[in-house]
Each structure stands twice: as structure tokens, then as C-alpha cells.
Amino acid sequence: TTLQTRTKPNIVDRPVPRGKSEVGLSAFCFLFSSMVQYLQTGVNSISDLEGKLSEAGYGIGVRMLEIVIYRDRSCKREIRVVPMLSLVKETLWKSMFGKAADSLERASDKDSEYMIHDREPLVNTYISVPKDFGNLNCASFVAGIIHGVLDSADFPCHVSAHSNPMGSEARTTYLVKFTEEVMERERRMTG
Amino acid sequence: PAGCYTMFIVNRAGGLVFTRHFSQPESSALKVNDWLRLASTFHSLHTISGRLSPISPAGGGIEVLETDTFRLQCLQTITGVKFVVIAEPRVANLDAFLRQVYVLYSDFVLKNPFYEVDMPIQCELFTARLDDLPVRP
């Protein structure tokens, strides 16, 4: 007897999945909690931990950019700063968290700094940071994702997460600082 | 939560990991060490009462303790953690209340990366949600 085996197509030849799959919040939060605990081993300071979280998010950002642009019907490449940040705030956020970020604003004093506001970052849903951890914000992970997305789209920058609670709400702000070369390019395209 | 005096959580080993006083009748004013002792004693009594059962297989330990001045309800989870609430005598549905506290525990304590299991609970979000949790009639 001969065994008939149907060869599965190579993963590269298979069609890209539609992308409407959702993961349970509990499952994700347990995984994220494990990741934070794992990253805590071998770090000596809060900023180190935030740095490691950011690095962990970077790889995700690099991959997210490709799939988000592919799934967005127009497949348009953004070359200006504000439309790119709108893509992050709207499309990327919707695909990751199911809703758009709250707002995008430019820093009043420096035109190379932009801020994305998020009232309740999904990753922080169940996290209560102890007092001796200061102002650690686990949303540094999301800042890393943004950084990965912007770097891959050729907008080199620094992204950091800051918690600025407004009353009882734990608001997080992602500060995006573009490098001089990006601002120079913007000026050339505007002028 | 209306009508509740105190809530405490005991870990698997019998140690007190969480206490929350909602409202206190003026007569009692136990100190922290008193609560520690109380929790360990309750843990022991709970275990003993489970073993005393004449039916086999024996069920769990103490679930309800009713007196003239208060009602105590205990929920023991499958992992050995005990949620105990002490409330006014006429308050009902404390078992449903404790089940919701269990849900809050599994969300805001167990999913917190900064919490070590069986250690004292110091999670702001858990405490805030607990304070707002109503006892449904």
C-alpha cells in the first residue's frame, strides 16, 4: 500500500490571513505579565526595565508595519510626518487594540516632538505598579512597537512612554522625538 | 460595599495576605497583629471543620458563621485561597459578593507582574475595585 500524503503549501506561498482574529484579554495579559517578570531578571534600574520592554516591542513594530500597510486597501506609503503618525494612531492602534488612540498633538515648543495620548493602555489594564518602582510604565512595550513601526517606515526617532495621571485616570503619553534628518526632510518637502 | 465591615484574604498556608476595613462598629478596634492571629485561627478551624464531616466524601470547611451581631461568609477556592467577609447580620448574597471578589483577585492581583503569589497584596487597582463593588440584594 502506498501512503498518500497531501503536501501542505510552503508558508511563504499561503495567502496572508484576513486578520480579523482576536485574542482573549486574559490570555494576553497573563503572557504580558510573564514577559514583564522575565525581563525584570537581570535589570538594575527602572529605566533598564523600560528599555528592555521597549526592545521587546520593537520587533513587533517592524512586522506590524508591513501587515498593517498590506491590509490597508490603498497600500499607500506615507512620507510625511503627520500622515504617518495618523496611520500609527488610527490604523495600527485599531489592529492591535480594537480602537484608535485618543489624540495626537505636536509639542508647543519643539516641532520635532509629537505626542500620542492613550487614556487606558490595554497592556496596563490589570497592572498596579508598586510605590518603590517609581514611575515605571509598562506601556514602554507599546512605545517600542511605535518605535519599530516608525523606524521601518524610515522616520528614525526616539519613542518613550510617560504616565501623566489626570485625576483618577491613568493617562499614558507616548512621546515621539524625530531626528534632525526627518525634520530636514519635512522642511524640504514643505518648502 | 454596603453593610460590610471587613474583608480578608488568607493564602494557602494560612497567612493573612489582605485586610480591608469598610466600616467598623465602634466597639471593635483590633490591631494588625490581632487580625493576623484571627486569620490563622480561622484557617485552622476551617480545616478542622472540613475533617469533622460525618459524610464521606467530606465537603469543604466553614462557609457561614452567623451570630447576633455579625455574619461571616467564607469562600474557599480550588487553590486553597480563602476569601472571608464579615458583615451586618441581615446582609444577603455574600456568597455572590465573594465570587465577584474572586474575579477581581484573579484579574488585578494574579495578572499583576509585580505580585508574588502567597505574598501580601498591595495592588491599588484591586483595592479600588473592591471598594466600589456592591453587595447585590
Protein model, in words:
The complex is a heterodimer of chains A (191) and B (137). Chain A is an alpha+beta fold. Helices cover 43% and strands 13% of the residues of chain A. Chain A has 5 helices and 4 strands; from the N terminus they run H-H-H-E-E-H-E-E-H. Chain A is globular and about 65 Å long. The N and C termini of chain A lie far apart (75 Å). The model of chain A has no long low-confidence stretch (mean pLDDT 88). By secondary structure, chain B is of the alpha+beta class. Helix content of chain B is 33%, strand content 20%. In chain B, strands 2-1-5-4-3 form a 5-stranded antiparallel beta sheet. In chain B, strand 1 and strand 2 form a beta hairpin. In chain B, helix 2 runs antiparallel to helix 3. The longest helix of chain B has 20 residues. The mean pLDDT of chain B is 89.
List the helices and strands and how they pair.
The complex is a heterodimer of chains A (191) and B (137).
Chain A lengths: L24 H16 L5 H26 L9 H17 L5 E4 L6 E6 L21 H13 L4 E7 L8 E7 L1 H11 L1
Antiparallel strand pairs in A: 1-2, 2-4, 3-4
Chain B lengths: L3 E7 L5 E6 L10 H20 L12 E3 L4 E6 L5 E6 L6 H16 L14 H9 L5
Antiparallel strand pairs in B: 1-2, 1-5, 3-4, 4-5
Q: What's a concise summary of this model?
A:
Chain A is 43% helix and 13% strand. Chain A is built from 5 helices and 4 strands; from the N terminus they run H-H-H-E-E-H-E-E-H.
Number of helices of chain A: 5
Write out the strand line-up for the largest beta sheet of chain B, numbering strands in chain order.
2-1-5-4-3
Shape of chain A: globular
| Number of E-state strands of chain B | 5
Number of helices of chain B: 3
As laid out across the biggest beta sheet of chain A, the strand order is 1-2-4-3
**What amount of the residues of chain B lies in strands?**
15-25%
Low-confidence stretches of chain B: none
Mean pLDDT of chain A: 88
SSE topology string of chain B: EEHEEEHH
* Largest interface: chains, residues each: A-B, 18 and 11 residues
Spans of at least 5 consecutive residues with low confidence of chain A: none
SS elements, strand count of chain A: 4
Radius of gyration of chain B (CA) equals: 15 Å
Radius of gyration of chain A: 19 Å
Helix content of chain A: 40-55%
What is the first-to-last residue Cα distance of chain A?
75 Å
